[in-house]
Write a structure and sequence with these properties.
Elements: H1 9-35, E1 39-48, E2 53-65, E3 69-71, H2 77-83, H3 86-106, E4 113-117, H4 120-123, H5 128-139, E5 146-151, H6 158-170, E6 174-180, H7 187-192, E7 197-200, H8 202-207, H9 212-227, E8 231-235, H10 240-248, E9 253-255, E10 263-264, H11 265-273
Parallel strand pairs: 2-4, 4-5, 5-6, 6-7, 7-8, 8-9
Antiparallel strand pairs: 1-2, 1-9, 1-10, 2-3
Helix pairs in contact: 3-5
The structure holds ligand C2E and calcium ion (3 copies).
Length: 278
């Protein structure tokens, strides 16, 4: 193997092998989980601190394992990405989230948008746009209530990104850039990609009150978003101080534990039912 000649060959080999077996087991468990419908979608509210209302819900997948219980996405999404299973899982999340959002509207709740994370594997698939069109058709969800979250790294192939994002926009859905500020970004392209929303990565929010550099980055992203006519949402807002500071910078889109963690659909509903206050 490649490790030949490295001093640590003997030390590391068993670990690597174990990891291989673990991956294999996990991959086949993930396949079974899909068949047995063991995945669940949680919804985290996106809050407009200016109007005091819920404006959206981010769909976040969990694996409800029959023995282990709820497994967070960080534990299985990487393997799902590696194996390509993320395409089927992501597809299921999209269907579930669109169906749920339509259901809330039919129940008479004020309409909100649902934001669904797209993996680069899905983004690169030939049938992506057709597939999303089908899901919208089947769920009967008005496209303006669906938002897809992409990351900066997916836009590296500029020509491809312009084409696909253009076709997605033509469906009438919204596009946001997730984890903004952590990756490759070219301000010029934000405009031609016809992005609607920037989501400031939570790492900047976390240290914003103690780290001047991060506060400056956050302020810059917000003013840039405004200049470009984009909406902006701050992720990972955990304290009132963070929210107040964001408000002084003109950012009212808030997502984080301060308001609510990701919740099962029924719990999210109780938030929709409750008249929110500023
Ligand atoms: P993300 O898209 O950046 O999602 C935000 C993550 O931050 C969520 O973690 C959420 O629970 C967490 N979070 C929200 N508010 C706070 C806060 O105030 N403080 C802190 N510390 N964290 C907060 P979660 O649900 O564990 O998801 C982790 C990642 O897994 C997501 O990061 C996303 O990249 C991925 N993921 C989740 N669901 C899907 C999916 O359906 N498809 C794909 N492709 N990826 C998904
Ligand atoms: Ca996201
Ligand atoms: Ca994020
Ligand atoms: Ca992320």
């Amino acid at each position: 193997a490649k490790e030949q000649g490295k001093n640590n060959y003997v030390v590391y080999k068993p670990t690597k092998d174990n990891r291989g077996i673990e991956h294999l087991t996990l991959e086949s468990s993930l396949r079974k989980a899909l068949q047995n419908e063991e995945f669940v979608v949680f919804y985290q509210p996106q809050f407009d601190s200016k109007t005091g209302t819920i404006i959206g819900a981010e769909a976040l997948v969990r694996w409800n394992h029959p023995i282990i219980g709820l497994i967070p996405p960080g534990k299985f999404i990487p393997i799902a990405e590696e194996t390509g299973l993320i395409v089927s899982i992501g597809d299921w999340v999209l269907r579930t989230a669109c169906g749920q959002n339509k259901k809330w509207q039919e129940q008479g709740f004020p309409p909100i948008k649902v934001a669904v994370n797209l993996s680069s594997r899905q983004f690169l698939k030939q049938d992506l746009v057709q597939n999303i069109e089908n899901v919208l058709f089947e769920s009967k969800l008005d496209p303006k209530y669906l938002e897809l979250e992409i990351t900066e790294s997916m836009t590296i192939n500029v020509n491809y990104a312009v084409e696909v994002l253009g076709r997605l926009k033509n469906l009438g859905i919204q596009i946001s850039i997730d984890d903004f500020g952590t990756g490759y970004s070219n301000l010029y392209y934000l405009k031609i990609f016809s992005i609607d929303t920037l989501k400031i990565d939570q790492s900047f929010i976390r240290d914003m009150m103690t780290d001047n550099n991060n506060a400056d980055i956050v302020a810059t992203i917000i003013s840039m978003a405004h200049t470009l006519g984009l909406d902006v949402i701050a992720e990972g807002v955990e304290t009132k101080e963070q929210m107040d500071f964001l408000n002084t910078l003109g950012c009212y889109g808030i997502q984080g534990y301060l308001f609510a963690p990701p919740l099962p659909a029924e719990k999210f509903e109780t938030l929709l039912r409750k008249p929110t206050t500023k």
